[in-house]
């Protein structure tokens, strides 16, 4: 474990309407690494991501980001500290153009002159479709937009919730490649919740397994290469 | 030329009715369309704007500036109301209706107690102009121009400014806008303030043409709701076309059988629209585009 984790979660509990989902999560996300959180359906992976970004108030425990306790902050305050969130199901703004979607992501910085070239460099299809309403894009294009929309704000940590869900394999590979490239070149820290073994193996340097609202195991990169081990933790 | 006079007379009536509907409804439509809040206190924001405008105008301030003061006062009151009451009731439309109705009663009765049954009014400025054999109030033409300018201004605000982009993002996927760093509470507060300011401006604009009484909001609110119901949730695709269609119906019926027939025409139109297009004109247009 790196000596200075970017994100440290201790004893985190959260749930929906009194129904507990997270039952004491302890997790340290090292700076500059790609960490995957895996586990079967319904063990609380997406809930964990929502609690980290601030869409779900914690009932107990602490979330420290860059040495600062953020558990009581609103989601937009956390975003402004450098947390980026790419939700499951993409959630693009459907009746706004691709460029306007990026503009919302840009608003974090309050930059007067938006420069989307870096994003269009990663995702050329977005440049082609920049005047098109985001709701009319394909699932894969929406996923690229959702990722671009977060990257444009220059976050230091990106939370990816099931980025491969419902997307054609070639785009899944593109996204994995871009994630790894960004991580290597800029030191971007990524937390990935995923079921797709290929995506996990292509991206993750470290992997935590969740079960019943707790982190139950940590897999090393070497173990990630063993498909059987990974499959066992993902199996229903 | 009686034919010419009749046509001009009708166009004047039509423009006047459409401008009134658009001005009445735009604030209500923004608050309903963007926030899902049905604001029954809309008429009292209009009354507040009218009272402020007249009070300021009597101090010798030119009317356009006085109207601006009315709009700002109503907008500020709107933001306070949003913070104290509306914010706690998001996602609970029926509760919001009851709460804003209560606010409406408090505001109109409070005004009655504090300021009495009426405020002495100011005269309609700008006189009249003769076209053909008939004369028309110039101020009414100004109101038509202002209605068009407000629609244009709102269009620019929501499509070409940073606030507009963030507001539309907040309205479309609130939790996503929030996680991208948008202070969505502030956006809601400002949006409510803009809706209330538009109501205040409407009150200020029509203040010189009518008697100021604490219950004057009622004269606006029926028309405002009819227009929003017919138009649906979108100001540009809904309120503007609804104002034009209903203005045509109202002025047509009024010319034919008088004021009462105009009101009946509006209500029949809204009943038909609820039956055929429950989401209004903009609901129809957006479904076809999507």
TrEMBL record, chain A:
Q: Does the keyword Nucleotide-binding apply?
A: yes
Q: Which GO terms describe its biological process?
A: L-amino acid transport
Pfam families in UniProt: ABC_tran
Which UniProt keyword terms apply here?
Amino-acid transport, ATP-binding, Nucleotide-binding, Transport
* GO MF term set: ATP binding; ATP hydrolysis activity; branched-chain amino acid transmembrane transporter activity
The answer, when asked if DNA-binding is one of the entry's keywords, is no
Under InterPro entries, the record lists: AAA+_ATPase, ABC_transporter-like_ATP-bd, BCAA_Transport_ATP-bd_LivF, P-loop_NTPase
Q: Which SMART domains does this one have?
A: AAA
Where are the annotated coiled coils located? Answer: none
SUPFAM superfamilies referenced in this protein's UniProt entry, alphabetically: P-loop containing nucleoside triphosphate hydrolases (SSF52540)
Domain ABC transporter as annotated: residue spans: 7-236
Q: Which family does it belong to?
A: Belongs to the ABC transporter superfamily.
**Full protein name:** ABC transporter ATP-binding protein
Q: Which organism is it from?
A: Lichenibacterium ramalinae
Automatic annotation (TrEMBL), chain B:
Which Pfam families does the record match to this protein?
A: BPD_transp_2 (PF02653)
**Keyword Metal-binding recorded:** no
Provide the alphabetized UniProt keywords: Amino-acid transport, Cell membrane, Membrane, Transmembrane, Transmembrane helix, Transport
Q: Which domain of life is it from?
A: Bacteria
What broad class describes the main subcellular location of this protein?
A: membrane
**Subcellular location, record wording:** Cell membrane
Q: Which family does it belong to?
A: Belongs to the binding-protein-dependent transport system permease family. LivHM subfamily.
What protein does this entry describe? Branched-chain amino acid ABC transporter permease
Native organism: Lichenibacterium ramalinae
């Amino acid at each position: 474990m790196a000596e200075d984790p970017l994100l440290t979660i201790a004893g985190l509990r959260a749930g929906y309407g009194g129904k507990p989902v997270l039952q004491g999560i302890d997790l340290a996300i090292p700076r500059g690494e790609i960490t995957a959180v895996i586990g079967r359906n319904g063990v609380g992976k997406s809930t964990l991501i929502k609690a980290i970004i601030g869409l779900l108030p914690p009932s107990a425990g602490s979330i420290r980001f860059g040495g600062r306790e953020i558990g009581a902050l609103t989601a937009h305050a956390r975003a402004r500290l450098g947390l980026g969130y790419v939700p499951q199901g993409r959630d693009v703004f459907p009746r706004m153009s691709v460029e306007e979607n990026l503009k919302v992501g840009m608003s974090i910085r309050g930059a007067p002159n938006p420069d989307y070239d870096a994003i269009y460099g990663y995702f050329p299809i977005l440049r082609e479709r920049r005047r098109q309403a985001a709701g009319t894009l394909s699932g894969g294009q929406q996923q690229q937009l959702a990722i671009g929309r977060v990257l444009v704000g220059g976050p230091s940590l990106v939370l990816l919730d099931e980025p491969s869900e419902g997307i054609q394999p070639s785009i899944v590979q593109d996204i994995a490649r871009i994630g790894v490239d960004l991580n290597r070149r800029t030191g971007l820290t990524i937390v990935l919740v995923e079921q797709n073994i290929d995506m996990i193996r292509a991206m993750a340097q470290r992997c935590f397994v969740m079960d019943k609202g707790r982190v139950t195991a940590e897999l090393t990169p070497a173990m990630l290469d063993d498909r059987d081990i990974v499959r066992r933790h993902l199996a229903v | 030329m009686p034919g010419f006079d009749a046509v001009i007379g009708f166009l004047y009536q039509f423009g006047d009715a459409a401008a009134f509907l658009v001005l009445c409804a735009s604030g209500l439509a923004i608050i309903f369309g963007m926030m899902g809040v049905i604001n029954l206190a809309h008429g009292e924001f209009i009354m507040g704007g009218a009272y402020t405008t007249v009070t300021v105008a009597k101090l010798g301030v030119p009317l356009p500036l006085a109207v601006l003061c009315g709009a700002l006062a109503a907008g500020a009151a709107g933001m306070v109301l949003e913070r104290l009451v509306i914010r706690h009731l998001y996602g609970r439309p029926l509760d919001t209706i009851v709460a804003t109705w209560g606010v409406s009663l408090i505001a109109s009765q409070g005004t009655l107690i504090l300021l009495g049954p009426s405020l002495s009014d100011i005269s309609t400025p700008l006189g009249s102009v003769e076209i053909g054999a008939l004369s028309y109030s110039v101020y009414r033409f100004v109101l038509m121009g202002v209605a068009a300018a407000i629609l244009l201004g709102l269009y620019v605000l929501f499509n070409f400014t940073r606030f507009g982009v963030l507001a539309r993002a907040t309205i479309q996927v609130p939790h996503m806008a929030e996680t991208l760093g948008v202070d969505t509470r502030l956006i809601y507060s400002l949006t409510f303030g803009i809706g209330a300011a538009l109501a205040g401006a409407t009150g200020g604009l029509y203040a010189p043409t009518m008697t100021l009484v604490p219950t004057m909001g009622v004269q606006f609110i029926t028309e405002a709701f009819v227009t929003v119901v017919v138009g649906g949730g979108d100001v540009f695709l809904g309120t503007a076309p609804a104002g034009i269609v209903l203005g045509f119906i109202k002025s047509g019926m009024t010319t034919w059988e008088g004021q009462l027939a105009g009101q009946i025409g509006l209500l029949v139109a809204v009943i038909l629209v609820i039956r055929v297009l429950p989401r209004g004109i903009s609901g129809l247009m957006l479904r076809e585009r999507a």
